[in-house]
Task: structure prediction
Amino acid sequence: MTRVPRCAVWSLVAMLLLVAGGCGVRGPGGGSAATGGLPAGGPGAASAPSQGASAGVTAGGAGASAQASHTSLPPLSPPARVTVGMKAVPSDAGALIGMEKGYYRELGIEIERLDFKTGQDMINALATGHLDVGFTVTAAGLFNAMSRNVKMKIVADKGYNIPGKGYYRLVLRKDVASQVRDFKDLKGKRLAIVGVGSLDEIALDRILRKGGLTTRNNPDIKVLSSFPDIVVALANGSIDGGMLIEPFVQQAIQKGVGDPWKDPSEYEDNAQIAIIVYGTSMIERPDVANRFMVAYLRSLRDYNDAFMKNKNRKEIVDLLARVSTVKDAALMDSMLPAGLNPNGYVRMKGIQSDIDWYAERGMLQGGPLKAEDVVDNRYVEEALKVLGRYE
Result:
């Protein structure tokens, strides 16, 4: 496999967050702390204020004033600003829906969306209190920071593959797919990823291992700069397949150049594709952190109602097409939906599998790391006390 400079390790993180649209690091701004009543058994009062870089995007939601609160939590007073690093991709629905429908504002939270050039920039901002919440993927840098006792935790799910509907998967060139009946048939095939040493390589390596292969020292693995470039390369025949995420899976299929091949449940059924991370400044404000999670899970429940139960689907499709990077409602409606756990929990086996992969490659510093060391479920559990479990 052709290797690239270390910055390319983070190109995948940035690309998975980006999917479409531009990005840039913003200048610093201020922050605020707030306290408020929590249900019995919740964490104590908030303390340190947050700091974050302002992107000038504040969440209020068009229906915020008209919608009555559906939780037992009183809103924070004064309202608390929460900075969120995200790219407004469809799997950011837990923020986008709640921002539009006023769920965060109901609880006294004002969201400001920040863009970061690389995943490492986001991790640095989370660690130093310049970013409250990160919508991201696992990375060696994240785990290394946590192993140094930097106050950051994975707190909730932000994307997994639903069996039979994998939104992040290996797509083969249409005229090649019929030749690749099993994993071992991938030998010698030119396969593309958009970054090394992160989620994309992990996913492809797991696929290849099913056929006794690996990404290590594999000259047939190509590193391209973006998911759209993989679709173009499929079309011009310069690659035989590549790791793609929606909406690019659907675009490749609709253009007649891509075949979705095997469902991801056949090669990595426990994978945790994307995650929510609370940074130092969020962990130090438990009242804010708990309320953020309540609004986040309310949003995920609207998403699951729409895409899993076909309830108010058009409303949510139109909402996401309006505020996400995918502006075509028809494309949004046809995409394979990201799995977003309406009860919030991440897949612990998937987190541990990622940790083990990084450790195998010598990318982790410090002693052995377990999923339990990097995941904190207290915020999800507090939210479930308020909302109950989604069935």
